[in-house]
User: Which sequence fits this backbone?
């Protein structure tokens, strides 16, 4: 299925793009793998930490819902939009 | 005469709404200085400015209400004096406190809207939870380096801060450029004025992500979490 992955902030510099179209399966693992094929293997580290958990310092929105809401039940559908950004916490 | 140039946009009714409103700006750092200044200049009736800190030299690259002679003084006292000079018609009430679970409800009971000038996620969530509980709109912003973000939490009409950000880790002393807090703090004041005067479309259910390096403003939709422990029941 086709997923739109949008990157923000320094992720755009790091991976040289604002948006990529991915062909992937239903799972987050599959999305990370498909993105890494296009953006480089380091991209996986933008989603998962060294323990394989979703990173706490990235916000990942799937059609506007925080991934942490729906972690256990992610089943991507064709046309889904995924946004990844580091939150800004200063004032 | 003072408000002549803004009346074409908000009208006498809008100006009266501002005059009759009461707002809390929580955190008088970079964002708070900018947002409070524009709200007071626009003629908000009453404004609570809240911050526990004292002026430090490293604040002066962006917190323009303070100067070298203010170093060591409570931020809220210095800011209140400057803001009263700017518009003596506004009732400026300084609170030198750290907002927490014990005092937040007393503060929110006094205001129609809360503006986020904080640099701590823990305090932001305390404000968010109290705002949701009382149905008080909350204009959230955060900055880091060249970046900023902004959204409006309007209880019952869009996601709350916990829906969007979940549990956040605190990061110590984020780098900040003055113009970035200038832009994002101004947008907080703008959203506040829009909400109070009911002019325009506030940023509810949408998150603005700003990147100053390439002047990129992008808005992403954000949805409510149906299981959110704070806002799902309203």
Assistant:
């Amino acid at each position: 299925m086709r997923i739109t992955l949008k990157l923000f902030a320094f992720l755009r510099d790091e991976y040289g793009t604002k948006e990529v179209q991915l062909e992937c399966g239903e799972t987050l693992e599959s999305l990370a793998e498909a993105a890494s094929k296009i953006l480089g293997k380091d991209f996986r580290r933008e989603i998962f930490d060294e323990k394989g958990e979703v990173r706490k310092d990235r916000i990942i929105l799937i059609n506007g819902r925080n991934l942490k809401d729906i972690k256990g039940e992610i089943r991507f559908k064709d046309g889904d939009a995924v946004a990844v950004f580091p939150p800004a916490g200063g004032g | 005469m003072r408000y002549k140039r803004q009346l074409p946009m908000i009208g006498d009714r809008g100006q009266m709404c501002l005059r009759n409103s009461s707002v809390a700006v929580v955190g008088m750092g970079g964002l708070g200085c900018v947002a409070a200044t524009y709200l007071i200049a626009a003629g908000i009736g009453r404004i609570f400015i809240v911050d526990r800190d004292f002026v430090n030299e490293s604040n002066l690259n962006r917190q323009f209400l303070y100067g070298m002679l203010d170093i060591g003084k409570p931020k809220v006292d210095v800011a209140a004096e400057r803001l009263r000079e700017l518009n003596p018609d506004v009732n400026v009430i300084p609170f030198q406190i750290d907002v927490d679970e014990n005092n937040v409800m007393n503060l929110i009971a006094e205001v129609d809207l809360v503006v986020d000038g904080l640099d701590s996620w823990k305090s932001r969530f305390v404000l968010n939870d109290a705002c949701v509980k009382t149905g008080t709109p909350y204009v959230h912003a955060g900055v880091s380096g060249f970046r900023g973000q902004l959204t409006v939490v309007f209880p019952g009409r869009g996601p709350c801060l916990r829906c969007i950000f979940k549990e956040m880790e605190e990061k110590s002393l984020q780098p900040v450029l003055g113009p970035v807090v200038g832009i994002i703090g101004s947008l907080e004041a703008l959203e506040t004025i829009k909400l109070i005067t009911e002019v325009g479309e506030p940023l509810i259910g949408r998150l603005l992500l700003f990147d100053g390096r390439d002047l990129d403003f992008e808005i992403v939709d954000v949805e409510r979490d149906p299981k959110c422990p704070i806002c799902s029941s309203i």
Notes: The mean pLDDT of chain B is 96. The two ends of chain B are 42 Å apart (CA to CA). The longest helix of chain B spans residues 178-197. The CA atoms of residues 174 and 184 of chain B lie 15 Å apart.
